[in-house]
Amino acid sequence: MKYWLDLYRANLRVAIASMLQYRFTILIWAVWGFIGPLISLAVWSAVSAARGGTIVNKANGASFAAGDFAAYFLVYMVFGHLMMSWDAFEFAMRVQNGGLSPALLKPVHPIHRDAASNIAFKLTTSAMLLPVWAILFWLLKPHIVLNAFSLLAIPALAVACVLRYVLQYSLALVAFWTTRVDAINQLYFTLDSFLAGRIAPIALMPAWIAAFALYSPFRAMGSFPVELALGRVPPEQILPGFALQGVWLVVAVVLLRTLWEAGIRQYSSVGA
Amino acid sequence: MRYLRLLKVLYRTSIQTDMEYRADFFTRIVASLLGLVATVGGLAIAYGYTSTLKGWTYQQVLVLVAVYYVMDGLTEMFIAPNMRNVMTQVREGTLDFVLLKPVSAQFLASFRTIVIWRAANVLVGIGLTAYAVGRLGAHIGIGQAASFALTMAAGCAVVYSLWLFLVTLTFWFVRVDNIEQIVWQGFEAARYPIEIYPAWLRGALTYGIPVAFIITIPAQALSGRAGQMPLGVACAVGVISLAASSFFWRFGLKHYTGASA
Amino acid sequence: MVEAQIVLKGLEKVYRVHEREAGVGASIRSLFQRKYKDVRAVDSVSFTVEAGEIVGFLGPNGAGKTTTLKMLSGLLHPTGGEAHVLGHVPWKREPAYLKHIGLVMGNRNQLTWDIPALDSFSVNQAVYAIPEADYRQTLKELVELLELGDVIKKPVRNLSLGERMKCELAASLLHRPKVLFLDEPTLGVDVSMQVRIRQFIAEHNAKYGATILLTSHYMADVTALCKRIIVIHRGRLLYDGPIDALSERIAPFKLVTVDVENAEAAALVAQFGEVVEQDGLKVTLRLPRTETSAVVARLLQDLPILDLTVADPPIEAVIEQVFQEAPKNEVLA
Fold first, then answer.
1. What is the ipTM of this complex?
2. Taking CB atoms and an 8 Å cut-off, how many pairs form between chains B and C?
């Protein structure tokens, strides 16, 4: 245990130091995360304005006013930043240019170093973004309603972060077999836009997409913590929600291990 | 004439190289279609609750998305790879070889390569344009088609000028890839009608990074929406931006070779 | 009648460098109040090169060699003085001028990384508007002379450093430049490849009478190719003349090596002059040129000598000495 703590501490220190070197670049990177939620918010604000203020999905009774959209997309912006991972891109690059080989010589799985740098990124950029978030919350006037279960969003967010990280890393491993990960990344991104409730709250989506989304890993590592924080998950669905997160996490870890072992065999047979 | 021949050779060599990566084309088409699903799907969900969005009907917005795809594809095919190349060349000092050649440096720097598989976005965009225009149900006359072509050309000129301007900044700052990212983010926002954005962002997207000009105006010309910019003005903007960016490039080049020191 | 092809008159390049101190405070201060320092990279350099000459352009790192070459090839504007190459002012960058020059930089590539050199060549053909027949002819010659063979059909990224350098040379020679600037053409290339490239440069010069200005860190390149050298240091011209005369003029010394019979004699050798090297019973002395014969006579007379040789110091050592003593030397040209 102490070994792991020391390992992460050392890796974190290095990662944070190098992040600070490139703070401007890193910040620009982080601002990328703003674009999606803000565009979605703009679209839905326009829709709600066109409908006189509040939108109701007649199929399930879900209702969103302008302030609710602001709350949903702003909280999603913050949570989304904390859940973000870009390992798929980097990993593919490393496999292609041979940068992976030195990492394989180390006695520790490279995922730990990557995870540490992911955490470092989130720590440094969150500190930098805090004032920006504060201004956006103040400007866009979200209507935030908390309820007794809102605090549960914190563990849900933690699981979501790990789940998204592990799943993305598994996806990145596809680079072992093909140099064209673009299409796979795009598929992931497209599914994520709908099923994780990024382009619209799942409650407002057509029934068939919503049904699909509710059981998908995307919602578990996407809008679930956001909905929980804003009190939009009915109490009887909270426990199943967490259970689903757990199931997907197990599946993701198994997937990662299997893919990793097979991938390394492939990598070493082709010639690292 | 000589430049046309040169262009032919340059593009031929780069297409020959791309042919080695033929499978890329399918990857790009798949990626492009998936991206389209995300954009159009999102819009379709929104339009499930309303029939117009700040005056834009669903069909008109589809035209807008289509123009976005065509423009984005053309940029990534013809302009962006060359401009990114110049940025690297300035950093590594190999731009010197471009300057040594007995032809216009701007020409050689701007049209060195073409990434042919990026045509995927252009094709998907054209397909969507045809579909959207069909859905629009309106008859597109010659005049409308011509004004669409002209505004597209003007839009391309503005995109090119914007890139050239950015690249010229590298003569002073060396690292401008961050600014490039910001421009790109602005582009991302332009696949939706800019009327949905708050006033300040609308201003930035119209006058700062003129994506409104590049995408919204051709889309309006094709879908026959009101509020069009007079054709003459659109063409003038295109020509002026070309001239201005070319002037700035030459000015930057002078600085680069130390003529201003 | 051959006329001068490269003429420099008091060419000068002064860089304004922003002085930056370490520390956050200093860097914030420098936002408002910048300190500048003038660096004279090239300081009123004048020389002329005749058509068909190969001239070695020497100097330590930062002497101003590359800056001078860049000005002559039109990549940099000077801050003072003038230069004419082939009758053109280089930094006007007229196409008519650029068509007739070539520049090879050992540490930079003009060839596109991902495509075969042959494709880059055909781009150059279009850029320089080389007629098809001439292009074929020149390419054939270059491929033969440089022993390129199939190398030009492989993507450049798969080539060795030496192969890449040969392709770079070929790319810069396709348009048969009348004036060729070579900046470290053998940098990092292995010895046998250096010899090959050297031979090629000599042959090319002999065949087309191209004027060549060459910089190199490898003195062997210079001694093999150049009869004349120009030495600059800290932007100033130190020497311009025949390579053989350099040692005479700058380093009026001879090296005398003696093999003596025993250790006592070896110890005594030091009395006759400055010992630069001693290897057992073999001792090397450095003697002023004018005194050499007298000292040699005395050596032979006083000591039990088995063998004695008199030699000029190696050119490397001479150049080394020039740079060390440069600050006190005036222009020797």
1. 0.84
2. 75
